[in-house]
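Ticket #4471: structure output looks truncated?

Reporter: J.K.
Steps to reproduce: submitted the chain below (89 residues) through the standard prediction queue, then opened the result file.
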Amino acid sequence: MSDLHTQFTQAQDDVKQLSERPGNLTLLRLYALFKQATDGDVQGDKPGFTDIVGKYKYDAWTALKGTAPDTAKQQYVELVESLKNGTAA
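Returned output as attached by the reporter:
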């Protein structure tokens, strides 16, 4: 198991233990990075206008199209670390 994979797995646990819930934009970024890291580029049809949350999630994931899974994992780990340290924007 690679060090990055171990860090990514730990970050998934850490994000559930945050003392404060991140804002919606940060949650979307976490979601998109996780999906890109685990599933690769976005797949399927964009949700319709009645599924507002699904549409935002799809758009956030689409914005990462072409990002390598390891890069997405690293960015996810860094974002979770910044949330833990209170330095996230």
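Triage note (M.O.): checked the attachment and the full token line is present. The chain is about 65% helix and 0% strand.
Status: closed, working as intended.
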